[in-house]
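User: tokens in, sequence out, please.
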């Protein structure tokens, strides 16, 4: 299985944001650091499907978008399917959910807390902490997530914030 720049398997990079505070360790390239400079960008478009059959939902979206569908390896990721996209495009996930179907964005960052504070300063608010990431709400009502880096070219292409 290919791995992102962080060296983690894709399933872990997609779904395991880092929230450790303090210095960066050798085995966790994207730990939150205490200085204020950080990077972020659009990482993933997630198609939330309130449907009993994630396979059927993923097959539909794969066919509709001309993408190949992949099951994630981690058994804890059973409610997700990855739709393969070109390397220069955001990741695309289909997710089985218990709320009404919608589409949401994931903003990937190398410092989750700093990015959440930056977005709060723009008017967003924290809705929930889920596993290892934040669900937030824009001032206009849309929900989105702030997660750890998910694509291998993050370091080269993310926006740097001071």
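Assistant: Sequence out:
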């Amino acid at each position: 299985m290919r791995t992102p720049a962080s060296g983690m398997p894709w399933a872990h990079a997609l779904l395991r944001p880092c929230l450790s505070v303090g210095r960066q360790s050798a085995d966790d390239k994207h730990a939150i650091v205490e200085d204020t400079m950080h990077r972020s960008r659009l990482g993933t478009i997630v198609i939330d499907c309130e449907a009993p059959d994630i396979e059927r939902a993923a097959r539909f979206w794969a066919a509709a978008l001309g993408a190949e569908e992949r099951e994630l390896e981690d058994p804890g990721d059973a409610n997700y399917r990855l739709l393969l996209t070109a390397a220069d495009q955001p990741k695309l996930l289909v997710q089985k959910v218990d709320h009404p179907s919608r589409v949401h964005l994931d903003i990937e960052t190398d410092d989750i807390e700093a990015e959440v504070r930056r977005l709060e300063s723009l008017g967003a608010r924290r809705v929930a902490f889920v596993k290892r990431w934040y669900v937030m709400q824009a001032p206009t009502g849309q929900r989105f997530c702030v997660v750890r880096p998910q694509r291998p070219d993050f370091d080269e292409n993310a926006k740097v914030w001071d």
